[in-house]
Specification:
There is one protein chain. This protein is an all-alpha fold. It has a domain of 217 residues. It has 19 helices and no strands. The longest helix has 44 residues. The radius of gyration is 23 Å and the shape is globular. The chain starts with 5 loop residues before the first helix and ends with a helix. This is C4-dicarboxylate transporter. It comes from Thermoanaerobacter thermohydrosulfuricus. Keywords: Membrane, Transmembrane, Transmembrane helix.
């Protein structure tokens, strides 16, 4: 039996305050810092410890985000170098004939993102998409925010919530539920398909409406532009860059390289392409340092507030709470989820709603995976009590958790996309809100029908 303490209540109140401030479009960094200090003090009863927790929470949060900060910074450095030698024009030219309209751009970029995300996960996929397809997409009439939404909905929403090939998410959920992975995946398919189809179609119509004016402006700019032809050395670098990234994809598929290993491969390739891009320029020794410095400055400028925001929400995870507060601490979001499960009347409607709510609640940490063990355990308990299908119950929780925390509807989970495409994370989350929530509601209704 979970007993809520003063720190639990304070954590919940601070979440509500932060969400209200986000809706009011106010900055939340100061409230987040105060919230971490307050939780630290209420958890320990010691002001000195609370001050230490304030630092430790931000440090651990930064440590967890460091890999994504590095990969994004390297990709930005590489992209700037390619842009300076004109290689970006050469690389993107073949795609322009296919990405002539917003409709073609939407579906081609969307399904390419989904395909890559299925096999190498979304974060590395965003790097590949961003390095090649941003300019052609913008020239077709799609604005940056819409492009970021397409990548996040198809990749971090649809592909990651299914995760049918790498099977990271379903393996965690299935293990906690006590069922085989293939059983969970089969039960997940109709719920996943509903959430994905509804979200993608709504986003498509929103994007199509918003792209008409953008399309006219872009075509005017393109027609009037008189860009010089890049030199032969830029052509060589372009061929090397494209060839290496294609080789990366082939190696990932052949040797099942994914997750952190895939990110490392993309990052290493980005460094090689960066060096190739600087070697064809004058003062290449200084240029290499310049590009790296510029990339990391941009990356840190983007991630600095995200590190602080994540520090608060990651306290909802048990592992983070133990590392930051004390070895005996429990995750506040996990405890709140357990408390809800103990105080709600049980039937198929409330059980589905509870799993859905647990998914959303644990997803607020910015990690769609952190709540999956709890979701699986709750599904196992309720299914035996009410004689319901545990795979279906667990599926709605998994989908809600990953759509919320994976990188679609909360700003601090969309930073990978926002940094690569150079769009504010809040704008991406705002645009994704209606499609993603509509998809999740539709998925909940299908879950009730299947039960």
């Amino acid at each position: 039996m979970v007993t809520l303490t003063a720190s639990h209540i304070a954590y919940l109140i601070m979440i509500l305050i932060i969400l209200i401030l986000l809706l009011m479009r106010k900055d939340i960094i100061l409230p987040i810092i105060l919230a971490i200090f307050l939780i630290g003090f209420l958890s320990t009863g010691n002001i000195l410890k609370a001050v230490q927790i304030l630092y430790t929470a931000i440090f651990v949060s930064g440590k967890r985000l460091w890999q994504i900060i590095v990969i994004i910074s390297l990709i930005i450095s590489m992209s700037k170098a390619l842009d300076d030698i004109g290689a970006d024009i050469i690389i993107t030219k073949p795609f322009i004939k296919y990405l002539k309209t917003p409709t073609f751009s939407f579906w081609i970029i969307g399904f390419l993102t989904m395909f890559l995300s299925f096999f190498i996960w979304p974060a590395p996929a965003v790097g590949l998409i961003g390095a090649v397809l941003i300019n052609p997409a913008l020239k077709s009439g799609i604005d940056k925010v819409s492009l970021a939404s397409i990548v996040s909905i198809f990749g971090f929403g649809s592909a990651l919530s299914g995760d049918f090939f790498i099977q990271g998410a379903p393996s965690i959920t299935a293990r906690a539920t006590g069922i085989p992975i293939h059983t969970l995946i089969l039960a997940n398919l109709p719920i996943w398909a509903t959430a994905s189809a509804v979200s993608i179609l709504i986003l498509y119509f929103i994007t199509l409406q918003q792209s008409k004016k953008q399309q006219r402006n872009n075509h005017l700019d393109i027609n009037n532009a008189d860009k010089p032809s890049p030199p032969f050395s830029s052509v060589v670098v372009s061929i090397i860059a494209v060839g290496l990234f294609i080789l990366d994809i082939i190696l990932m598929l052949l040797f099942r390289i994914h997750s952190n290993a895939a990110t490392a491969l993309i990052g290493g390739t980005s460094i090689i392409v960066l060096i190739a891009s600087t070697l064809v320029q004058k003062n290449f020794l200084d240029k290499t340092r310049e590009y790296l410095r510029e990339g990391f400055i941009t990356g840190m400028r983007t991630f600095a507030p995200i590190i602080v925001i994540s520090a608060f929400f990651l306290l909802g995870e048990t592992s983070m709470a133990k590392e930051v507060i004390s070895p005996h601490a429990k995750g506040y979001l996990v405890d709140l989820g357990m408390y809800l499960s103990q105080h709600i009347p049980l039937n198929k409607y409330t059980v589905s709603l509870l799993e859905f709510s647990l998914g959303v609640l644990t997803g607020l940490s910015g990690s769609g995976f952190s709540g999956l063990p709890l979701i699986g355990a709750i599904a196992k308990t309720f299914s035996s009590t009410l004689n319901l299908n545990p795979a279906i119950i667990a599926s709605i929780g998994q989908i809600a958790a990953i759509w919320t925390g994976g990188g679609t509807i909360i700003p601090w989970s969309t930073v990978a996309v926002s940094t690569v495409i150079d769009v504010e994370a809040e704008k991406i989350a705002k645009k994704n809100m209606v499609p993603a929530i509509a998809g999740l509601i539709a998925a909940y209704l299908v879950t009730i029908f299947l039960l």
